[in-house]
Amino acid sequence: MAAPAVVIATRNPGKVRELAELLADLPLRLLSLADFPELPEIPEEGETFLANAVAKARQVAALTRLPALADDSGLEVAALGGRPGVHSARYAADRTAPLPPTDEDNWRKLLQELTGVPEGARQARFVCVIALALPDGRLFTARGECSGTIASEPRGHHGFGYDPVFWLPEYGATMAEVGLEVKNRLSHRARALAEMKEVLRRLVAEGAFSGPSA
Ligand code: IMP
Taking the domain 5-206, which CATH number applies? Predict the structure, then answer.
């Protein structure tokens, strides 16, 4: 029998790669929004990570009639009162520019905003909320955090987003230097997903994904 399908509700290849690696030992066939090019863009309009993750998972489950896993994540910087938070992906957005900001635009803006903020006041955390929506309306959520500080300059080439400037004191390295294997042990997404994985395991055992539409 074919493994049941779950749609990862993102078009971000970096996230698909990380989630696929973290879920590799579950008997699931992982699809992503790249497998559904006809689906409309799903706007992220919520004011919390939870609201965005739930809205995305619910909409993708309704549109594909498959279980959908959505994450919403971002960086909260203490010295900026928690910004960029839910606006992390578009932090450096410029209304006059034709394209959305790149990862580099975003971390460059962050370094600029933190100019002059001393090392001891650069605490930050990545936050991730994952929601799983089933086509029958059931909903499950999990949250993970990863604490660090914002470095004064970028280092490393792994990962994505703010990884080059997210300093992990206990590793003496940025998130972009430690590599995917280490990142997948300590990241906000890994932590939220570890919790969600238990839910998925239970649902697989119950046969919840093997209905006619899955
Ligand atoms: P979203 O969850 O797709 O809305 O993306 C949130 C944004 O937060 C991303 O575009 C990145 O800028 C940032 N972000 C989320 N997770 C990570 C991560 O693991 N490393 C670096 N940046 C991240």
Answer: 3.90.950.10
Give 30: exposed, middle or buried? Use CB within 10 Å, 0-12, 13-18, 19+: middle
Which amino acid residue places its CA nearest to atom 11 of ligand 1?
A: 161
Query: Cis before residue 84, ω within 30 degrees of 0?
Result: yes
Residue in 66, 63, 72 with CA at minimum distance from that of residue 28: 66
Find out whether the beta carbon of 106 lies less than 6 Å from any atom of ligand 1: yes
Which of 25, 35, 71, 72 is an active site residue?
Answer: 72
For 29-73, the pLDDT digits (tens) are 999 999 999 988 887 789 999 999 999 999 999 999 999 999 999
Is 72 a known active-site residue?
Answer: yes
Q: Are 133 and 139 in contact (CB under 8 A)?
A: yes
Atom of ligand 1 nearest to the CA of 18: 19
Smallest CA-to-CA distance from 103 within 13, 39, 181, 170 is with 13
**Whole-model pTM?**
0.89
Closest ligand 1 atom number to CA of residue 52: 4
